[in-house]
Design goal:
This protein is of the alpha/beta class. It has 21 helices and 19 strands. It has a seven-stranded mixed β-sheet with strand order 8-7-6-9-10-12-11. Strands 15-14-13-16-17-19-18 form a seven-stranded mixed β-sheet. A three-stranded antiparallel β-sheet has the order 3-5-4, with no helix packed on it. β18 and β19 form a beta hairpin. The chain is globular and about 110 Å long. Pfam families: Methyltransf_29. One of its GO terms (biological process) is methylation. One of its GO terms (cellular component) is trans-Golgi network. Its EC number is 2.1.1.-.
Length: about 650
């Protein structure tokens, strides 16, 4: 700076002007070079000939002849946006050009349930019904094809009409219409089945039977919201409880009563394939307000009372267990049940004894109906262990772990309380406030990393997400289009909660690989769900769900199992014309989209509510309608297959 201060003022001005001229010339030169380079990279200059008639140019003299002007123009620049999610992927080929690389399965697999396959089950022990538990195919054994719908498959009736009827073509089995003809389970009429609402123990109808239960348990004040029905038949008990705002998980094994769970699902009623055998039911502890067995043929007194002890685990404090049918009121019905008085009396005595030792209180026995209630805490029950040595209380076990977890014959201890009047684990709000009230598991701080603030933020987030979903998926926005919904990674149940005013039910799934097990919170909110490892098939029939939601599932299972296997399972359990919303990282969804064309899904990607600059994107998909060929064509294909082999 001192050097410039010694120069005359006019010299400084001249030098400054000279420097500015050099800078300007250099900048102009560089801009010109880069402009010419850009034109060269876009294909250089192209010459186009444009014929301009004087009638189109008002500035020309009308008396002049038509003039042809040769105009040399550069190729126009492309200003198309690069932030559209659809452009992140190459456009799929036209529908006619697509060649599915995932073949269709043989029509005989139309009702295939991979982990409850009848042929595979026969290889396992029949003791305690172990052969009816989940036995999934090993590596290389699973079908690598798409399960077909039966020929003539039709979109199910909309709820509530579906409660009363289902298309025969969708579940083409008449076995129950004959075997249960006198019990009003189901009737076949023309092209459909009718469900009169009856059952083995309530031939007058499920509504009348539920009214009878309601005389002894308050079913109308919101204190009973979640229920479980064992050996559910066609789930009429659960179907008719829905009108009373009670949500029931119905389950039954895949056994000689062909398609009973499948009928329930076609009716739009929550149901799963399941059995009481040697492993825990796939639900958390303290999940259900009420449990029910109506002639479910479960040997409650065997195996040291393991089955009743398992129900004690999943019943909430103060919950009810209802038993109707054998052996209740055996004195009157023993001849009709074709069993001896001594046998039936001994069975009931064992049930009564186990219930007392678990500290259950018998509320009543009237006719063929008996009701017990679980204690609200274990203060007295721990004291009476001096009298009842068995079952002992379990030590060092997680009561919410229930995926291939062996049943135990020890009593699951309830959370500690300080007063005999306290409810272990915390008081649940009555429905519908229960849905939005902070769940006791979160209030107590028993879930690591999940706070009250997290719960409240999640509730607000799902309001925004649902608005985004309905803006893209107009069928989700139309009430009644969907009925059976699946959320593959439910977290706190936010997706199901924001849909509570729609005529739908949601199966909330807690992946066993999730960092925090929140399925107990979902039940405390008055919703239902199950545990699942998505590297395996779900315990349900093909075409169970109308809609599937998957939040970060493929990120969670990255490097755990084959993405294609998960997609094939989604395809199996989704009905034709059903919809899917995948939410995940853009790179993962790009890979997924390259596979879904082979599944015959129509897909499109879109930005999430976070906008174009967020990596999380949405992939919307619709499963195209296709079915098995006609029975004659299917027989011909099967014959050709045998000949070729």
């Amino acid at each position: 700076m001192r050097f410039f201060s010694n120069l005359p003022h006019h010299v400084i001005t001249f030098k400054t002007k000279q420097i500015n001229l050099y800078s300007l010339a250099g900048t102009t030169l560089f801009c010109s070079l880069f402009y010419l380079l850009g034109i060269y990279n876009h294909g250089g200059l192209t010459t186009t000939t444009t014929s301009l008639h004087h009638s189109t140019l008002p500035c020309l003299n009308p008396s002049q002849n038509t003039t042809t002007i040769h105009v040399t123009t550069p190729k126009p620049l492309d200003f198309t946006t690069r932030h559209s999610a659809d452009l992140l992927l190459p456009l799929p080929p036209p529908a006619a050009a697509r060649v599915p690389h995932l073949p269709r399965c043989n029509p005989r697999f139309a009702d295939h349930t991979p982990c409850e396959d009848v042929a595979r089950s026969l290889k396992f022990d029949r003791e305690r019904n172990i052969y009816r538990e989940r036995h999934c195919p090993g590596k290389g054994e699973a079908l690598r094809c798409r399960i077909p719908a039966p020929f003539g498959y039709t979109t199910p009736f909309r709820w509530p009409a579906s409660r009363e009827a289902a298309w025969y073509a969708n579940v083409p089995y008449k076995h129950l219409t004959v075997e249960k003809a006198g019990q009003n389970w189901v009737r076949f009429e023309g092209d459909r089945f009718r469900f009169p609402g009856g059952g083995t123990m309530f031939s007058r109808g499920a509504d009348a039977y539920i009214d009878e239960i309601g005389r002894f348990i308050n079913l109308g004040d919101g204190s009973v919201r979640t229920a479980i029905d064992t050996g559910c038949g066609v789930a009429s008990w659960g179907a008719y409880l829905l009108s009373r705002n009670i949500l029931t998980m119905s389950f039954a094994p895949r056994d000689s009563h062909e398609a009973q769970v499948q009928f329930a699902l076609e009716r739009g009623v929550p149901a799963m394939i399941g059995v009481l055998a040697s492993i825990r039911l796939p639900y958390p502890s303290r999940a259900f307000d009420m449990a029910h067995c109506s002639r479910c043929l479960i040997p409650w007194g065997l195996n040291d009372g393991a089955y009743l002890i398992e129900f004690d685990r999943i019943l909430r404090p103060g919950g009810y267990w209802i038993l109707s049918g054998p052996p209740i009121n055996w004195e009157r019905h023993w001849k009709g049940w074709r069993r001896t008085k001594e046998d039936l009396k001994a069975e009931q005595d064992v049930i009564e004894s186990i219930a007392r030792r678990m500290c259950w209180k018998k509320l009543l026995q009237k006719g063929e109906l008996a009701i017990w209630q679980k204690p609200t805490n274990h203060i007295h029950c721990k004291k009476n262990r001096k009298v009842f040595k068995e079952p002992r209380f379990c030590l060092a076990q997680d009561p919410d772990t229930a995926w291939y977890t062996k049943m135990e014959t020890c009593l699951t201890p309830l959370p500690e309380v300080s007063d005999i009047k306290d409810i272990a684990g915390g008081q649940l709000a009555k429905w519908p406030e229960r849905l939005t009230t902070i769940p006791p598991r979160i209030l107590s701080g028993s879930l690591e990393g999940i706070t009250v603030e997290d719960f409240e933020k999640d509730a607000e987030l799902w309001k925004k997400r649902l608005a985004t979903y309905k803006a893209y998926d107009h069928q989700l926005a139309e009430k009644g289009w969907y009925r059976n919904l699946l959320d593959m990674n439910s977290h706190l149940g936010g997706f199901a909660a924001v849909l509570i005013d729609d005529p739908v039910w949601v199966m909330n799934v807690m992946p066993v690989e999730a960092k925090v097990n929140t399925l107990g919170v979902i039940y405390e909110r008055g919703l239902i769900g199950t545990y699942q490892n998505w590297c395996e098939a779900m315990s349900t029939y093909p075409r169970t769900y109308d809609f599937i939601h998957a939040d970060s599932i493929f990120s969670l299972y990255k490097d755990r199992c084959d993405v294609e296997d998960i997609l094939l399972e989604m395809d199996r359990i989704l009905r034709p014309r059903g919809s899917i919303i995948l939410r995940d990282d853009v790179d993962i969804l790009s890979d997924i989209k390259s596979i879904t064309d082979g599944l015959q899904w129509e897909t499109r990607m879109a930005d999430s509510e976070g906008g174009p600059h967020v990596r999380e994107k949405l992939l919307f998909a619709v499963k195209m309608y296709w079915t098995s060929p006609t029975p004659a064509a299917a027989d011909q294909q099967q014959g050709e297959s045998k000949t070729a082999s």
